[in-house]
Structures are given as C-alpha cells and as structure tokens.
C-alpha cells in the first residue's frame, strides 16, 4: 500500500473522506491544500503504518524510510529550504492525528530540525536572533519531554533559576543571549538525565518524533480516553509532518483559533481569538490574553466593561479579510461550521487545521436550520445534524454557564433541567409550602408513590438512594421535574430537619440548586436560563417528522401530563399507569381499604368508591388526547408501595373500614412480601381479585362512551394487561374485560371499539409471544421490567453496583437507560417476530424508559416496531431520534 500522502502547493494525494487512513487532521489538511488554500506543505504517514508498527514489534514497513525521504525532498523544494541545511534550514512539526480528535491525548513536536548549527542559519534567515534561540530551546524542551522522556519540569526549573539570577520576572523579558544560555543548559540537562547527548542529527530527530507519536497511541492516558469515548484500539493514529510556519516572527506575525459561527449560540458571526507574535500553544496555554478577531466582538467586550486590545480586523485588516474569505470557502465546501487554526507569518496567512466545530445543543439547532435556509444543506441533512439527546438541554431550564456556583455533591442525572428552592424533607410539607408560594426542593432518602403530590409541588427532587429507573427518577421525568437521584454522600435526618454531606450541613429551608442534567447539587441559588421552544426548535422538529416512520407516544397518567406531551408532539398515550392515580390524598384510603379487605365484599365496597374517580381520570385524559390512541394499563402495583406504614395511616384506614387497627396491621403483615417486584403484582392481582380489573375496565368503558357520545372525539381505548407470563393469564383476563364491555354497552345502549393487549415484560412472555399473541390485539414491551428480569438486577437498587460495572465496561451503559441490545434486545426481537408470525398486523410498541433513548429507538426502528412511548419531555428527542433512525 501507499504509506505516505503528500499535500501542499494547491494539490494533495489525500481527501477529506480518507479519515480512516489519514486521520482527521491529515485528511482535512489534504482537502484544504487541494482547495488551493494556503497550507504549509507536508505529508501524512498513514494509520496503516501504525497498525503495521504494532503488529511487527514496533518495526516500520520496509519502504517507509525511502517514501518519507522522497516526500520530504518535495517539501524542501516547495518551501525552498533544506532539512538540516545550515544556511537555510527547513523546520517541521510532527503531530499525531487519529480518525477522531483526541484532544491533548497524544504528542506533538514543533520546530524539529534545529541543532547547534541550523539554529544559526535560522537566525540569519529570519534576521532575528532572539526568535531563533527561543525556537531552539522550545524544541529541546518539547523533544526532550515528548520523545526522550525528560520531564518538562527540569526545563522550567532552569528557566526559573536563570530569571532569578538576572532578576527578571517574565519570559518575555529574556533576550537572545538568555535563550542561548538556556538552550545550552537544556542540552546539558538532557545529557545528564539520559547519559547521552541531545541528538544533533536531524534525521534521527525526525524518526525519534515519528516513533514517539506512534508510541503515544498506546500510552495510558490515550487508552483511557479511548475507553471513555468508545474509540477502538485498532484504529491507530496517523503522523503529520509539515513545514513549520511561525506566528512569533515579530509584530506582523500572529497565531489564532476561530469558529466560523458562534459555537455557544450558533450566531452567524466569526468567533475567535488571536495573539500577535506568538506560537500556537501560547494561545491555548493562557499565558497572554488573546484578542478578539472581529471589531464587533472587541467593541462588545469593551462595552461590557472589558479592556480588549485591537481586534485582528483592526490590526491586520488585509490578512483578516483573506481569513474571512477562507472561512466562507471552508463552510461552503464542508457545509458545516468549522473550527480552524491559523498562523500569520510576516503578513502571510497559513491554514493549519480545520474540522467540524463542537457546539452546544442550542448552536447545533440554529446552525442546522440556518445552513438549510442558506441552501448549504437540505432539510434531511439538517435533521441529522442535531444530536437527539442534546435536545434535553433545550427543553428544560439550564444553569446559566456564567453564574457562580458552590458544588455540594453529585448523584445520577435522573431527570434533566435545573431548579432552585428551599430544602424540605417531607412531601406534605412540600405541598404546603408550595401552596404558600415557596419554591421547594423535595429531599428524600428515596421516594415512594406516596410522595407524588410532594414531587409535583416541588421544583425538583433529590434522593440519596435509587437508580435511573427508581421511582423518583421515572416519576420526575414524567412530570418534567429536575431530579438528582442516588446522591450517596448525602445523609438525611428528616426528623432533625437537616441533611449532611461531606461535612457540610443543610437545614430545612436552606436553598439548594439541582442540575438534573449533570447530577450536580449546589448550595444556594444558581441562576438558570429558560428554554426556547418556538423558532428553530419547532422548524427542525417539523422537518424531522417528515422523515420519521415510528410513531411516538407518551407515558402519561394525568390530563396535565397528557397536555404537555401533546404540546411536545406526542401522537397518543402508550402507557397510562393507573396506579399513579391511586395516591391522591382522597383515594389512598380507599385503595388501602381495597388491598386490606379480607373478602370480595370488602374489596367491592372500596372499589365502588374508586370507580367514579377513575372514570373522571379517564374522561379527562381522553378529552385531552382528542381521539388519539390511549393505552391504559390495568393496575400493576407492587403492593408494598401501597401498604400503610405509619400508625396514623393504619388508624385512618381502620376507621374507614370499621375494623380494628391491630387486625389491619396483622393483615398488612400477611401481605408483606420479601420480593414485591416479583410478587403479587401485575396481572396476578387481576387473576386473584378479578373485581379490581373489572372496576377499572368499567371506568374505562363508561368514560369512553361519555366522551364519544358527549362533545369529545370518538375514543377507542386500548386496555393493557401487565406482567403477563402465560397465554392463560391473558385469555382469562381478556374474557373478564370483554364481559365488562358487554355489560356496560348493554346498560348504555351504545358501544365503542376497543382493544385488549398485553405488556411483554417478562422473559417468558417474549419467549412464548406466539402463544400470547393469540389473545392480544397489541404488544407493548415493558423494557424496565424486562431488563430487571432478564439480567436479574433490581431496578431500584442497581445504582450501588452499576457505576463500577459501567466503568469496568461490563455493561457499555446503564442497561436501564440504554437497551441491552444483545440480551434484552434479543428477547424484544424474538417477541416481536413470534407475535407477528401469528398475527401479521399485531401492533407493537415499547413503553419502558428506553422508548426515549436514541440508541434504543434506532434498535426499535430496525425491528420495524410501530411506536415508542416515552415520558412527555422526551417526546421531541424520540421524534428526532426516530427520524434519524429512518434516514
Ligand atoms: C416497564 O416495566 O418497562 C414498564 C413500562 O412498566 P413499569 O415501569 O410501570 O413497571
Ligand atoms: Mg413494568
């Protein structure tokens, strides 16, 4: 193969689409050169050489040396200088460049080709002794550190000692003579540490640097970075060798970095910084404060009370205007916002790098829509340009990035958005204070369904325990409340009204701020910014919808949540969890009465109280959804969530039932389970207490008829049976639902169409889906329970070990957040196939939390499912992810 690719002088052997072979930097340097932009000439040694190098015990391919020598000759001709020449030396940079950028992970050597003789040539050529000796000492320092392994602190120490001797404070005060002395001391230090002298042979220098760059692919920090960013080990890096240009040759020289659009806001204006008389790393190192590129940015900064020096537009107007032209050409060519590095050497502009610039979600959105309006990309491409997960940042309030903050601790980013408020430890108190107009943050060890009203009243929720699908997390996401869960360092003493964390105390009433997008908790109030949902957001979502095949529904249990979801574009309800309606203050007593009754009569008495309330709930939801499909899941309570705990709660229920509190406690004791999530829940409850599901079915049909025959759109309810493991369970319960339907239709003298389906959330259900499909009109994969039961990890307790599991790459990600495709995904795929084999038009969706996760949505698109259902605030994310999956 070809090991070396040349670029420069208006042509190149490589192209932008050869990133696998040339790395990102090399491919884009080639592309810019071929476009005729001013790129210092050079060449790229391919990533295949890196692979060869590691496959062959760190040897290079046989012809590499000859290829490099030959190409270097071409560079010499182009520059008009020679490598190692004592009169007119060519200097080069040697840089790594993998397929994707790995900032700061691998090594770079600048000014290579300097030695005791060529430094004199450089001094004569440049007419600047100080520049030449400064360059030489920088080279010894960098090469010594990166290639020879002589730690940079040795060199810095020598500089400090020298400055002290001379009574100087700043590097800029050092003169040619000083740098010359230091270059000598640097070489002595290298010889002292290594036992042999600093290499004077420029060929040896070059191969040393190439070897160091290839070697840096396998250093620890690069390996760690790759692991964190899922970059394969076998990609390898390319090496770019390029003629040096100097931004530090006096006041007509400069170096800078720029974005062609503002990467924070997306605004269509050049955004960047430059430094006169400096080398690239000076801008990054922050030793001197860089100046703005444009006059407008400089004026803005000064209006805001800054003290910015002249912009490049003002100090170097000709070069600036060339640079602006280059920006336009690059954007038109790449059809995206670019992140650029450039150098001006004595008034001449050189481009050193371009790549697609990283940007905030807000900027990504604006840039995608703007580029489409400017005709640079089409709408379909614009849809692919915004990361769906990044929309989270846009749908919720965010912390003002400029606001000061005081970090208390970190937990899991359970529900996005930022909120501040006073700490309360009790749901009732949260509600009381909120009614009085306070903004509160509910802080609990963990939440239970009894806390729902408090969570609703609070601005945000903080828990010390619980994972990403813990009760608090699921409910908070559904309500759009920011939530940090599993903040394990926090100790809550609700009775004493304090919580402690890392030696700090927060008392009830103290203000804290949560960032549910990052999992951070701050002491005091941190300023937040409000989301903007019209404009570009609406435009991009409209475009996305034209490419989407999957339907997007929502998990919503109340009319307000349904409303929010519809505003975000939900096309129906995929999961209405009826148990969430049971925690209302007026109902919980009746619900407990139903659970604790010892016989059917007792249960029916309680159910009679619940029926009208459930009917109202469903009517409200049907109306809000105006004829869109609504899937209502019958009761699926792990019973422990409903049982009374406090004496006062037992007393209340006992009074309502007219029984003795002691007897009631015994009954609760009987009902308590070791493993409630695998206990008397889901359809098992409907099988043993048919009257519960019958009441719910009746409420659904009566509500559907009321809305349909009243002023509402016709309703076709979809009744869903949870936690089914066998076809028998489903056919029995289906029979009960059908009987209720007939009875209600007869009573009302009218009927509505309806469906009965099931959740597939147990492995057996997926495995036996063909049999289950016989009794089902639709399937909805409950991937929360399916994950819990397939992997055998508790969704409520997993946070304790999931973090190390993910860090050790046992799981690539939290399987409750992103579907475990190999395991759980295989069951989903099997269930869908088996179901469709029996019923080709079986409607199939997914309603676990994964329904709002982009990678899981891509998987669902691949299976050809009909819809995904997710919490209201994730609906836009799901719409965009589904569109991208279909493109
Ligand atoms: C599920 O198990 O995936 C599901 C959607 O139901 P729940 O989260 O209510 O158990
Ligand atoms: Mg479930």
From TrEMBL:
Q: State the source organism's domain of life.
A: Bacteria
Q: Which residues form the PEP-utilising enzyme mobile domain?
A: 438-519
Which Gene3D superfamilies does this UniProt record tie to the protein? 1.20.80.30, ATP-grasp fold, A domain (3.30.1490.20), ATP-grasp fold, B domain (3.30.470.20), Phosphoenolpyruvate-binding domains (3.20.20.60), Phosphohistidine domain (3.50.30.10), Pyruvate Phosphate Dikinase, domain 2 (1.10.189.10)
Q: Which cofactors are reported in the record for this sequence? A: Mg(2+)
- Which positions in this protein are listed as binding substrate? 577, 633, 761, 782-785
Q: Where does Mg(2+) bind?
A: 761, 785
Q: Which InterPro entries match?
A: ATP_grasp_subdomain_1, PEP-util_enz_mobile_dom, PEP_util_AS, PEP_util_C, PEP_util_CS, Phosphohistidine_dom_sf, PPDK_AMP/ATP-bd, Pyruvate_phosphate_dikinase
Domain PEP-utilising enzyme C-terminal: start-end pairs: 534-885
Q: Which reaction does it catalyse?
A: pyruvate + phosphate + ATP = phosphoenolpyruvate + AMP + diphosphate + H(+)
Q: Which residues form the active site?
A: 471, 847
Q: EC no.?
A: 2.7.9.1
**UniProt domain Pyruvate phosphate dikinase AMP/ATP-binding: residue ranges:** 20-369
Q: What are the protein's UniProt keywords?
A: ATP-binding, Kinase, Magnesium, Metal-binding, Nucleotide-binding, Pyruvate, Transferase
A GO MF term = pyruvate, phosphate dikinase activity
Q: Which family does it belong to?
A: Belongs to the PEP-utilizing enzyme family.
PANTHER family from the entry?
PHOSPHOENOLPYRUVATE DIKINASE-RELATED, PYRUVATE, PHOSPHATE DIKINASE 1, CHLOROPLASTIC
Q: What does this protein do?
A: Catalyzes the reversible phosphorylation of pyruvate and phosphate.
Give the protein name, as stated in the record: Pyruvate, phosphate dikinase
């Amino acid at each position: 193969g070809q090991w070396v690719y040349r670029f420069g002088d208006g042509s190149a052997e490589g192209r932008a689409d050869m990133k696998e072979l040339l790395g990102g930097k090399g491919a884009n340097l080639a592309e810019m050169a071929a476009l005729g932009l001013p790129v210092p000439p050079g060449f790229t040694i391919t990533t295949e050489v890196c692979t060869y190098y590691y496959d062959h015990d760190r040897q290079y391919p046989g012809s590499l040396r000859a290829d490099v020598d030959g190409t270097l000759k071409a560079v010499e001709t182009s520059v008009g200088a020679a490598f190692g020449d004592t009169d007119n030396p060519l200097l080069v940079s040697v840089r790594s460049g993998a397929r994707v950028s790995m900032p700061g992970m691998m090594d770079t050597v600048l000014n290579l080709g300097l030695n005791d003789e060529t430094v004199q040539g450089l001094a004569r050529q440049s007419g600047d002794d100080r520049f030449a000796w400064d360059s030489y000492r920088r080279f010894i320092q960098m090469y010594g550190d990166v290639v020879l392994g002589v730690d940079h602190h040795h060199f810095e120490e020598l500089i400090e000692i020298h400055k002290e001797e001379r009574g100087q404070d700043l590097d800029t005060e050092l003169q040619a003579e000083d740098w010359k002395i230091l270059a000598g001391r640097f070489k002595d230090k290298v010889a002292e540490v290594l036992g042999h002298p600093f290499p004077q042979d420029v060929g040896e220098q070059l191969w040393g640097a190439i070897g160091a760059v290839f070697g840096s692919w396998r250093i620890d920090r690069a390996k760690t970075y790759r692991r964190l960013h899922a970059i394969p080990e076998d990609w390898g890096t390319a090496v770019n060798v390029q003629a040096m240009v100097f931004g530090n040759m006096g006041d007509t020289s400069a170096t800078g970095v720029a974005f062609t659009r503002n990467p924070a806001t997306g605004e269509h204006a050049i955004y960047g910084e430059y430094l006169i008389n400096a080398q690239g790393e000076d801008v990054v190192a922050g030793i001197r404060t860089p100046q703005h590129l444009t006059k407008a940015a400089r004026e803005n900064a000064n209006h805001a009370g800054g003290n910015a020096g002249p912009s490049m537009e003002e100090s170097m107007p000709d070069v600036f205007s060339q640079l602006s032209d280059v920006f336009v050409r690059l954007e038109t060519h790449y059809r995206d916002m670019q992140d650029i590095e450039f150098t001006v050497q004595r008034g001449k502009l050189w481009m050193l790098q371009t790549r697609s610039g990283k940007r905030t979600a807000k900027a990504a959105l604006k840039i995608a829509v703007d580029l489409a309006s400017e005709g640079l990309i089409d709408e379909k491409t614009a849809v692919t340009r915004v990361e769906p997960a990044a929309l989270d940042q846009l749908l919720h309030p965010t912390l003002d990035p400029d606001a000061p903050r005081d970090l208390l601790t970190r937990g899991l980013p359970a529900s996005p958005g930022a909120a501040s408020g006073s700490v309360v430890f009790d749901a009732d108190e949260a509600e009381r204070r909120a009614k009085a107009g306070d903004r509160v943050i509910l802080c609990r060890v963990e939440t239970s369904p009894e806390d729902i009203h408090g969570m609703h009243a609070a601005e945000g929720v903080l828990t010390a325990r619980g994972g990403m699908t813990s009760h608090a997390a699921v409910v908070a996401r559904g309500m759009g409340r920011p939530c940090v869960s599993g903040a394990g360092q926090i100790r809550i003493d609700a009775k004493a009204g304090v919580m402690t964390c890392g030696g700090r105390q927060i008392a009830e009433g103290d203000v804290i701020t949560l960032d549910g997008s990052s999992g951070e908790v701050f002491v005091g109030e941190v300023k937040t910014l409000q989301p903007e949902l019209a404009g570009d957001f609406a435009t991009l979502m409209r475009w996305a919808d034209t490419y989407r095949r999957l339907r997007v529904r929502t998990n919503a249990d109340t009319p307000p949540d349904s409303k929010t979801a519809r505003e975000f574009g939900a096309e129906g309800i995929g999961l209405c969890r009826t148990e969430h309606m049971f925690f209302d203050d007026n109902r919980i007593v009746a619900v407990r009465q139903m659970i604790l009754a010892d016989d059917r009569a007792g249960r029916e008495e309680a159910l009679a109280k619940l029926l009208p309330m459930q009917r109202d709930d469903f009517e409200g939801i049907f109306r809000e959804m105006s004829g869109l499909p609504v899937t209502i899941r019958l009761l699926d309570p792990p019973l422990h969530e409903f049982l009374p705990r406090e004496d006062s709660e037992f007393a209340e229920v006992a009074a309502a039932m007219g029984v003795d509190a002691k007897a009631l406690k015994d009954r609760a004791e009987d009902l308590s389970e070791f493993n409630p999530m695998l206990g008397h829940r889901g359809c098992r409850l409907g099988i043993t207490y048919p009257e519960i599901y019958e009441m719910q079915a009746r409420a659904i049909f009566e509500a559907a008829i009321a809305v349909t025959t009243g002023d509402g759109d016709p309703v076709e309810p979809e009744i869903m049976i949870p936690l089914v493991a066998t076809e028998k369970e489903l056919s029995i319960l289906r029979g009960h639902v059908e009987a209720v339907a007939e009875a209600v239709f007869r009573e009302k003298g009218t009927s509505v169409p309806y469906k009965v389906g099931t959740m597939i959330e147990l492995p057996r259900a997926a495995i036996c889906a063909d049999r289950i499909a016989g009794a089902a009109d639709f399937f909805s994969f409950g991937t929360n329970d399916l994950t819990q039961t397939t992997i055998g990890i508790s969704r409520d307790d997993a946070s304790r070990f999931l973090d190390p599991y993910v860090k050790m790459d046992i799981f690539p990600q939290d399987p409750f957040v992103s579907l475990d495709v190999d395991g759980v995904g295989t069951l989903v795929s099997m269930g869908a196939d088996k179901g469709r084999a029996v019923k080709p038009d079986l409607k199939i969706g997914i309603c676990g939390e994964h329904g709002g996760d982009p990678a899981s949505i891509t998987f669902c698109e691949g299976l050809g499912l009909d819809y995904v259902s997710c919490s209201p605030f994730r609906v836009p994310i799901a719409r965009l992810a589904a569109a991208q999956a279909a493109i």
